[in-house]
Each structure stands twice: as structure tokens, then as C-alpha cells.
């Protein structure tokens, strides 16, 4: 679920960027006057004498964005019950970091605007834009490991929930008691249907729409209802019984294909997956590729002429928003991460290092969707509307640049996970410092004419690509053996060391190579729970003697550094560093040359 969410959000960033660019171009074109005129066009529903009407911008901000926050509610519900948020130790750090990442930016903004006309905009720099952040992390690539993405996604979920609460409490002007009571009754009706386990989509759609209208009329922003309804959607892990029924239905269809059997198989498979997950699968593309980009198109348009930019440069609102996002988010998240770790309130996923965390804190200053949302609430009809938007754009761009720089510096300080042609130029040894001995992990005959020594990292993607190639080399060359030595790049791959420890635990049972193959076949799934699962499959206690196994890994690392290893994978052929390509033909030629010269 988490990986699917990341792929969808990251992939939609380009669409969001295009929509933002179009809004800016439209607002600054010779037809710029039509931008506001278009989004203020009224559209409504009438039935007899009753009429409900909003302008297009409010339909987007109050209507479509309710679906966006509904999806956040679905994600919160899933993560709390089945995902990352089940483990309180993993929640504590990103939750406190999210709180710090809201409190400090608001404080930075108020330092410049307290008591002035822009004081009400303190909520603008508090929120992180998940889609833009995950999109930037996709560009960062290997510098940002999956545990950091998981940490930032958890932070973003808490951030969004807190932002909605702030909107409901501080950006609600007037309350209609009658509409509020109506909304409460409708919400109770929805909860009753859920309690009675009545799962009829039309009933929920009708009641949900009525609840949205009542909430809008009450004065509370309807996006709060979106997240509340998302949290209420039922989520469960597939039971063995449902999986068995689904398997039987699929088997029946396979043996006797028919329309009836196909329908039954589809229904059984669908019922095995919770409504929450099915809704996320269906709605995420609409939210990511339609709703959020349309929101950007409707709200990001701001005139960037000389007069507006000069006013923004001296505007405490624009400066407060930009500094709140750039410095406030960075300082707040960094402090909010350090404090719970210092006090022992929680742990980080995947043994993340501070270089990665600081990069994540910096890119979290990209505030866009919710920031623009709050601008519309705080400064509707005010001259401060444009400076606030300019502050969002400036702060977000600067935060992205600072995050990219920090990730680059953190990368350069760590090891290099790259093919040999990408390794840094350095005068390194060309021969193996420590010969193959009885303590090594060897696959192949003891009297082999050619020995390949690989320094590898179980989380390194290049090592993963090399793995089947080396297997093919061994299959085609019976006189070749492979020696594997550990070289985990902890800064870049926080799960690599734990995976190496589990491999060493398997070696105690004579099953190193079985674990070796499992780990490379499941490189993207190396959490502690995953590793324990693989160990259980091989009847291995993964954490039986961690200190001894860590010492064994350190021996490999020392031999690697003495041999000039700086990245993974690094190969030695009969004791000589291999400098060729990591493809089957190149390695086969090197093996043949070593065989002839042996």
C-alpha cells in the first residue's frame, strides 16, 4: 500500500507542475483578466424554488478537495490499523516532528506579522505538500531510501490531520447551529450504517453529499468531513477464510471457464480486500492526476509583474511565508525529530542517518496545496492574497533547492552505490588485499580455476542487477567459484547492515547462500519484519548473536577498504580488480581471460 501510494503521488508531480505553470502563464498573459473571471463563474443545482450555487473556485476548493482529504482519511485509517502507524514507536518521532514542523513556521511568520493586517495568515506555512515532496524524492532517487519516504509520508499524514483541525478551529468565521445539528445527524446515520454492516454504496454517496452540503452551510470547512469519512471507511487484512474462498473461485474458473465462474471469482477476490484499499486504488489516480492539478490551476495564478514582485519583496506576509517554509519547517522538523529520539520516545524506520533526515526536513518546506488552501481562507478578497502566494512559491522553491543540496552532500559523504564507470576517480589498489580463506562464503568448487570475489550490499540496486548475471556465469562455467563479502553502505542503504546480519545468522546454520538469494530477490522488502519472516522460512534465529555477526561483517568491510573498495558492487577476478561492465558478456570475457592466464 505504501509503495503504491508513493508511486502514484510521485508520478503525478509532473502534472501538478504543468498545472501550476499554466495557472501562472494564464494569470500573466494578455488575457490575465479572464483568469479570475473564469474561476468566479457561478455554477449550481436548482430544484423547484431551492437552489444551491457556488463559483467554480469554491466547487474546486470546497468540493473536489474534500475528495483529496477523504483519501488522506483513508490513508490514516489504513496506516493506523494495518500499516506503519500501528507501531507507536514508529509514530512518535514523525508525529512530534510534524508538530514541530507546524509550530516553528507559525512562530517565524508571527515574528514578522504579529499585530499587523497579515497576522491571520500564520497557518499558511504550516503544511507540507505531500505530492511535491514525494515527487522531489523520486528525483533524488537512491539518495533517499524507502525508510525516509515512509518517515516523511507518516509525517505528512500527521501534518495534514493537524492542518485540517487548524482550519476547522481557526478559519471558521460563523457557525449555523441548525446546519451543524443536521450535519451531526447525517454523520450519525453514516456511522449507524457502518455499525449495522450495511455496505450499499448509493446510501453512503447520498448521505455523504448531504453531509457535505450541511457542513458547508454550517460554516465549518467541509474538508474536515472528508477526512472524517475517510477514517470511518472499514479496513481489514484479508482473512484466511476469504483468501481460501477466492482461491477456490479462481481455481473453478481456471478449470471450467464461464461468465458465471468469472463473475464469482471476481467477486470473491474483491471481497478479500477491504473497501478502504479498493477506494484508495480507484480514487488515488483521480486525486493525483485531476483534483490536485485542477486545484493548482484554480489557485496558483498570481500576477508576477514588476510592481507585484517589488511589493512582495518588502511584504512581511510574503517574507513570513517564505521564511516559515524554508527555515521554520527545517528547524521545526529537525528539532521535532531530535527531541523524541533524545528522550527515547520512539525509533526511526530503517536506521536512518541525520544527513537523510535533514534533507527530508528541508524538502518538507515545500508547501503548496494546503498552503494555497489556507491563503484563500485567510486572505479572501484581501490585497495580501498575492504576496502570500508569492511567498509560497518562493519558499517552496528555496526549500526544494536546500533539500537537494543536503541530499547531495549526504551522498558525497557516504559510500557510492553505482556501477564501476560511475565510481569517483581515485588512485586505488588493484589487487585483493586479503586472499580467499576458510572463513569466506564460497559458492562453487574449491579447486576452481577462476575465483570471483564480490563486495556487495543487499540493498544496493546494482548488486541486485548483478546477482542473476553472476548466477548465469556460474551455471555456464563449472570451473568458476563466487566469494561474497559484505560491504554495506549504511548511509545510503539503512537496511543493508541488518540484512547482512541475518545472512550471517543463516550461515551459522549452513544456509548462507539460500538467504543470500532470498535477500536479493526481495531487495525492496528488508524491514525487520521482512527479515524475520525470511529467517523463519529457513528456521534461523536472525538476532541470535548480533555482536559476533557484526564483527564478521566488519572484517569483510576492512578487507574491502584495504583492497580499494569504495562502492558496490566491486568485483575481483583471481585477485585482480575487475574494471569492465556489469553485463554477462563482459564478465564472461574476463573469466575466459583469467582462465587462460591461470
Automatic annotation (TrEMBL):
Keyword flag Repeat: no
Entry membrane topology: Multi-pass membrane protein
Compartments, as annotated in UniProt: Cell inner membrane; Cell membrane
Keyword Ion transport applies: yes
Recorded catalytic activity of this chain's protein: Na(+)(in) + 2 H(+)(out) = Na(+)(out) + 2 H(+)(in)
Main location: membrane
TM regions (residue ranges): 59-78, 90-112, 124-143, 150-171, 177-196, 203-236, 316-341, 353-378, 390-411
Record-linked Gene3D superfamilies: Glutaredoxin, Na+/H+ antiporter like domain
Domain Thioredoxin: 417-596
Superkingdom to which the source organism belongs: Bacteria
Keyword annotations of the record: Antiport, Cell membrane, Ion transport, Membrane, Sodium, Sodium transport, Transmembrane, Transmembrane helix, Transport
Residue runs in coiled coils: none
Family: In the N-terminal section; belongs to the NhaA Na(+)/H(+) (TC 2.A.33) antiporter family. Belongs to the NhaA Na(+)/H(+) (TC 2.A.33) antiporter family.
Described function: Na(+)/H(+) antiporter that extrudes sodium in exchange for external protons.
Protein name: Na(+)/H(+) antiporter NhaA
Amino acid at each position: 500500500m505504501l509503495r503504491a501510494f508513493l508511486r502514484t503521488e510521485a508520478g503525478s508531480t509532473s502534472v501538478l507542475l504543468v498545472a501550476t505553470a499554466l495557472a501562472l502563464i494564464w494569470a500573466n498573459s494578455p488575457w490575465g483578466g479572464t483568469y479570475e473571471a473564469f474561476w468566479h463563474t457561478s455554477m449550481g443545482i436548482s430544484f423547484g424554488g431551492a437552489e444551491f450555487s457556488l463559483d467554480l473556485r469554491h466547487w474546486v476548493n470546497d468540493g473536489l478537495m474534500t475528495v483529496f482529504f477523504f483519501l488522506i482519511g483513508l490513508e490514516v485509517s489504513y496506516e493506523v490499523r494495518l500499516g506503519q502507524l500501528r507501531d507507536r514507536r514508529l509514530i512518535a518521532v514523525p508525529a512530534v516532528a510534524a508538530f514541530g514542523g507546524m509550530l516553528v513556521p507559525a512562530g517565524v511568520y508571527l515574528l514578522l506579522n504579529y499585530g499587523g493586517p497579515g497576522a491571520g495568515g500564520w497557518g499558511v506555512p504550516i503544511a507540507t505538500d505531500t505530492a511535491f515532496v514525494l515527487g522531489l524524492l523520486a528525483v533524488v532517487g537512491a539518495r533517499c531510501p524507502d525508510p525516509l519516504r515512509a518517515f516523511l509520508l507518516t509525517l505528512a499524514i500527521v501534518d495534514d490531520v493537524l492542518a485540517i483541525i487548524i482550519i476547522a478551529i481557526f478559519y471558521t468565521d460563523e457557525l449555523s447551529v441548525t446546519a451543524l445539528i443536521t450535519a451531526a445527524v447525517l454523520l450519525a446515520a453514516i456511522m449507524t450504517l457502518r455499525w449495522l454492516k450495511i455496505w450499499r454504496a448509493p446510501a453512503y454517496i447520498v448521505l455523504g453529499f448531504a453531509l457535505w452540503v450541511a457542513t458547508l452551510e454550517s460554516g465549518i470547512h467541509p474538508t474536515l468531513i472528508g477526512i472524517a469519512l475517510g477514517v470511518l471507511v472499514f479496513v481489514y487484512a484479508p482473512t484466511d477464510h476469504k483468501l481460501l474462498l477466492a482461491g477456490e473461485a479462481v481455481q473453478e474458473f481456471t478449470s471450467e471457464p464461464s461468465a458465471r465462474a468469472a463473475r464469482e471469482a471476481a467477486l470473491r477476490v474483491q471481497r478479500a480486500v477491504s473497501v478502504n484499499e479498493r477506494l484508495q486504488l480507484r480514487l488515488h489516480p483521480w486525486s493525483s492526476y485531476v483534483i490536485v492539478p485542477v486545484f493548482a490551476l484554480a489557485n496558483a495564478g498570481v500576477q508576477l509583474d514588476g510592481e507585484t514582485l517589488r511589493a512582495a519583496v518588502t511584504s512581511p506576509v510574503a517574507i513570513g511565508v517564505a521564511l516559515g517554509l524554508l527555515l521554520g519547517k527545517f528547524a521545526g522538523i529537525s528539532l521535532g525529530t531530535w527531541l523524541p529520539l533524545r528522550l527515547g520516545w520512539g525509533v526511526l524506520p530503517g536506521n536512518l542517518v541525520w544527513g537523510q533526515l535533514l534533507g527530508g526536513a528541508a524538502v518538507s518546506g515545500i508547501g503548496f496545496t494546503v498552503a494555497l488552501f489556507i491563503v484563500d481562507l485567510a486572505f479572501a478578497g484581501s490585497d495580501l492574497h498575492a504576496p502570500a502566494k508569492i511567498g509560497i512559491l518562493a519558499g517552496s522553491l528555496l526549500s526544494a533547492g536546500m533539500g537537494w543540496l543536503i541530499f547531495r552532500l549526504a551522498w558525497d559523504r557516504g559510500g557510492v552505490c553505482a556501477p564501476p564507470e560511475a565510481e569517483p576517480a581515485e588512485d586505488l589498489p588493484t589487487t585483493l588485499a586479503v586472499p580467499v580463506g576458510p572463513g569466506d562464503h564460497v559458492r562453487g568448487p574449491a579447486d576452481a580455476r577462476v575465483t570471483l570475489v564480490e563486495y556487495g550490499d543487499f540493498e544496493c540496486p546494482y548488486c541486485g542487477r548483478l546477482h542473476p548475471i553472476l548466477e548465469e556465469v556460474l551455471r555456464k562455467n563449472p570451473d568458476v567459484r563466487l566469494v561474497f563479502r559484505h560491504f554495506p553502505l549504511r548511509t545510503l542503504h539503512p537496511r543493508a547492515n541488518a540484512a547482512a546480519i541475518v545472512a550471517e545468522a543463516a550461515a551459522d546454520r549452513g544456509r548462507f547462500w539460500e538467504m543470500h538469494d532470498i535477500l536479493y530477490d526481495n531487495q525492496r522488502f528488508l524491514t525487520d519484519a521482512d527479515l524475520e519472516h525470511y529467517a523463519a522460512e529457513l528456521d534461523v534465529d536472525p538476532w541470535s548473536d548480533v555482536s559476533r555477526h557484526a564483527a564478521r561483517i566488519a572484517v569483510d568491510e576492512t578487507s574491502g577498504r584495504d583492497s580499494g573498495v569504495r562502492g558496490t558492487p566491486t568485483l575481483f577476478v583471481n585477485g585482480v580488480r575487475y574494471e569492465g561492465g556489469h553485463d554477462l558478456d563482459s564478465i564472461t570475457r574476463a573469466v575466459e581471460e583469467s582462465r587462460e592466464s591461470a
